[in-house]
Amino acid sequence: MKKKITRRDSRSDLFSKGIKNDWAGWQDVLDSLTNGILMFDLRKKVILTNVAMLSLTGLPREAFTVSDFSKLFKKRELDLEAELSKVITAGEPIHIAEAQLSFFFYEINVTPVFDDARKLIGGALILHDITERKNEEERRLELDSLKNKFITIVSHQLRTPLNAVRWNLEMLLARELGAFQKGQEEVLKISYCAAKEIILRINDLMTAMDIEGRSVHLQKEKVAFLDLVHSSFEEFRIPCELKKIQLSMVSPPEELPLVNVDPNYIRDVLYKLMINAVDYTHEGGKISVKVDNKKKDKIRFEIKDTGIGIPESEQEHIFQRFHRAYNASASKPDASGLGLYIAKQIIAAHGGNIQFESKEGKGTTFWFELPCFN
Predict the structure, then answer these.
(1) Number of domains the chain is built from
(2) 287-309 pLDDT, tens per residue?
(3) 239: containing domain
(4) Last residue of a domain, one of 108, 129, 150
């Protein structure tokens, strides 16, 4: 009984013969490539391969099928044969970013092959070893994890004694242990401010670690946003008076809807934006705060200063962790570069958005929007 030859079979046979004839003289070139090469027809019969493919997979050059190759990969993680079937039925390329084979990792690209009449006749597979890159990524993640654990441990160890120092200084400044001798109050105030600054830095490090570890847990409640702004605003009156900065606030003409937020985290964002405005605005400058509800489903907070501004070349990096513009570093050398990074992440976690406009030497306007509680 003669086997019935289909059009699909004849195309595969032509492809097989054509590939073998066309590439016969190119085998040495293919064997010099570091990527594994595998070409197959519509029946998923291997037509051509190279030394790298055999070396990477351990398969022999003869009696080597697509099925043999596919079975090397765990089916529950990657059904490669099914993916290859898609290529020769739909005629669409596929990209597999990562596939594991024993202790090695590979990137796989498969492209359909067409004849001169644009008829699908097979496919070509490229196997690229990414094990070194994968191991490097894992080493980097492990180092980041160790670094974060170190920072967390050190921060915890420092925070408790520093809080004790702060509380004792507060007690002394409240004159609970008696009156000061000449010059003592000023020394205590400096010590208190330094202790408070260190505690704030540690808290920022801890928050940044929580953000990186995706362990920020919001304790949301329905609050009046303007109350949060007013409490933060009043806190900065004295620092502004000390630098002779004109501080003003524009409140909305009508009552604002409530917001569903974690008040402690939002206060922290307000504090970071306000302290930046004070720190980077020269004596005699201006800072204005504005809250509105022009977008009925959002509440917008805006703070504008006449400070040093952010250089244009630095603006795309301003929300990155530890990044500080060069003029900010010159103006205040000891800041952490975490404030805006934390602010952006917290606002995003609340479903909001934070942006800014700035011109070096002229000043900066930061604003963020939060969804109203419905």
Answers:
(1) 3
(2) 999 999 888 889 999 999 999 99
(3) 221-371
(4) 129
- Which pLDDT tens digit goes with each residue over 67-124? 888 888 877 777 888 888 888 888 889 898 888 887 889 999 999 988 888 888 888 9
Same domain, 348 and 296: yes
* pTM value surpassing 0.70: no
pLDDT attached to residue 26: 66
Helix (H, G, I), strand (E, B) or coil at 246: strand
Residue 1 within any structural domain of the chain: no
Question: Of 104, 129, 154, which closes a domain?
Answer: 129
- pLDDT score recorded for residue 39: 87
Measured between its terminal Cα atoms, the distance across the chain in Å is: 77
Same domain for 84 and 149, yes or no, is no
CA dihedral (263, 265, 270, 272) in degrees, to 10, reads 160
Distance CA 48, CA 16 (A): 9
**Which token pair is 100?**
């594991």
Tokens representing residue 171 in the block: 């007690």
Q: Do 110 and 171 fall within a single domain?
A: no
DSSP structure class, residue 251: -
Q: Are strands 353-359 and 286-292 parallel, antiparallel or unpaired?
A: unpaired
Residue 263 tokens read as 């008040």
